[in-house]
Amino acid sequence: MILVTGATGFLGAELAKELILRGNNIRCTKRSSSSIPQILQPYAAKIEWVDADLMDFDALEMALEGITQVYNCAAFVSLKQADKEPMIRTNVRGTANLVDICVEKGMRMVHTSSVAAVGEAKPGELITENHHLDSSTENDGYAISKLESEMEVWRGIAEGLDAVIVNPTIIIGASAGTAGSGQIFETVRQGLKFYTGGTIGFVDVQDVAKCMIALMETDISGERYIINAENRPYKQIFEEIAVCFGVKPPATLAKPWMMELAWRGASVLGFLTGKAPALDKTSARAASVTREFDNSKIKKAIGFEFKPVSESIKEICITLRH
After folding, report:
1. I need a surface site. Which of 55, 60, 255, 257 has the fewest CB within 10 A?
2. CATH number for the domain including 297?
3. Distance in Å from the first CA to the final CA of the chain
4. Is the CB of residue 215 less than 8 Å from the CB of residue 300?
5. Which residues lie below 8 Å from residue 42, measured CB to CB, with a gap of 6+?
């Protein structure tokens, strides 16, 4: 039996759907307050939903009864500074609980980390799985939570856990709607004036799900894999989205000093409204940085070919237009 944690989220839901389309009946965990995503509603008969928070060890142990394969997609994500410590604590403790049960029961796990937990390469070099984030100099709460969660999986592997780790780049897909990476599309559609000078990796959500399933079905253990289709400048991505929507592409470069002003302004606005800032310091600075990722390890491991980013962009724009 297969268990998916975080199946109410963007990636988890897509992964659950992909598993069902391959003929599996699955069990999914969710928080009692979470609603079932629209893309999984047609498959209600194939999914056994269990209310189990990863922080609740006993509930998690019950949810894992009779399970042999675990896909861990659950994570607390927030840009709010006030959420930094709770986010780190929740993501790390939740992963540790899951790892402990999987070690004890001999289950195989595919753990979803992020390239936020992968370090930097020298200028002009591609970032590989051998790069590691320096937690002593990192301030981004999400990156720290992902790094320390990954460390729990490595600890489990040292204790005999059969597991692999995936580190996706920016995951895009129509089912995101206007949340998460979908905000990029909605912002361009509304008439974005500025672009940033950075470059980052992008990958389709369906490809991430397919890579995770393919890795689960191998006997590979104790490895991490960057899941990335293409490295693209933000400017190029914004232009493609604008063309798809038939709107004017952003024409003004937002220089790093302008981004500094923007995140400070967003922070003040967030404080006054009580809402999460639309932009935080880490995101603002990252938007002007070039980070290019090497995807050769995953391609070699499972013989995978990624969907072109331009194809994903077209699909997302068509969905959002309707």
Report:
1. 257
2. 3.40.50.720
3. 37
4. no
5. none
280 lies in a domain? no
Residue-wise pLDDT tens digits, 60-101: 899 999 999 999 998 766 656 666 776 778 778 889 999 999
Q: Is 203 helix (H, G, I), strand (E, B) or coil?
A: strand
The region, left, alpha or beta by phi > 0 then psi within -120 to 50, assigned to residue 200 is: beta
Q: Residue 221: which domain range?
A: 2-174+201-229+292-308
Alpha-carbon distance 246 to 271, whole Å? 35
Q: pLDDT, tens digit, for every residue of 15-27?
A: 999 999 999 989 9
Q: Is residue 40 part of a domain?
A: yes
Instruction: List the helix and strand counts (H, then E) for the chain.
Output: 11, 12
The secondary structure element, H or E, covering residue 227 is strand 223-227
Strand-pair partners of 171: 203
Percent pLDDT > 90 in the chain is: 59
Number of domains making up the chain: 1
For residue 272, being part of any structural domain is answered with no
Q: Which of 107, 96, 106 is nearest to 2 (CA)?
A: 107
Which has the closest alpha carbon to 143: 258, 281, 300? 281
Give me the residue label for tokens 């980013």: 309
The dihedrals phi and psi of 7, each to the nearest 5 degrees, come to -75, -10
The verdict on residue 320 lying in a domain is no
Closest CA to 182 of 76, 68, 319: 319
Distance from C-alpha of 233 to C-alpha of 249, rounded to nearest angstrom? 14
